[in-house]
Design a protein that fits this description.
Helix content is about 45%, strand content about 10%. By secondary structure, it is mainly alpha-helical.
């Protein structure tokens, strides 16, 4: 399967790009799905309505269900559910014993900021500042390198980057989640 020819991958659908027809289609399909569900449950809803209206907790117009017949219809499903539950419990016990019998893998050493920054061509001090920010939006250039990051205060240029690689918001900048919604 070929990716979309527009170059934006993965193709993101954001609220600004959805046409009115798509919104209308989604609304109509949602209403139809709820109507189908209400139709399929009409007898149960009628029983519940009759049971909960005045005089409350009494059937006035509807006949109460035949519980013996209902249990006869549902019994195979309950047996199947019990069988699946037992099967799940059996394998949980088997896998639990197997997992407890194996030695746990030691945790890897924590990633040093200098090594992390070296992977992206950033300085350790910039990563330390960015790590302290409550909100951080990181922008990438066309080559996939970090061009700049925006915090609550102001944009901070990536250390060691030229002015050409710093892309202002509203241009061709792409954030972590895809194309900027501000452009």
């Amino acid at each position: 399967m070929k990716p979309a020819s527009s170059g934006a991958w993965p193709p993101l659908i954001v609220g600004a790009n959805v046409s009115g027809w798509v919104r209308l289609r989604d609304f109509v399909l949602t209403v139809l799905a709820w109507a189908l569900l209400a139709y399929l449950m009409r007898e149960t809803l009628d029983l519940a309505h009759d049971y909960l209206r005045y005089p409350i907790f009494e059937f006035t117009n509807a006949e109460p269900p035949d519980w013996v017949e209902l249990w006869g219809r549902l019994r195979p499903f309950w047996h199947f559910i019990a069988l699946l539950t037992l099967w799940l419990l059996f394998w949980a016990l088997v896998r639990g014993r197997r997992m407890r019998a194996t030695a746990p893998e030691p945790q890897p050493a924590p990633l040093v900021l200098a090594a992390h920054g070296a992977d992206f061509g950033l300085e350790e001090s910039a990563l330390a500042r960015w790590r302290e920010a409550r909100v951080l939006v990181v922008h990438f250039d066309a080559a996939g390198q970090v061009s700049h990051a925006e915090t609550e205060d102001a944009p901070q240029a990536a250390p060691g980057r030229s002015k050409r690689a710093e892309i202002p918001l509203g241009g061709d900048a792409e954030g972590i989640l895809g194309p900027s919604i501000h452009s």
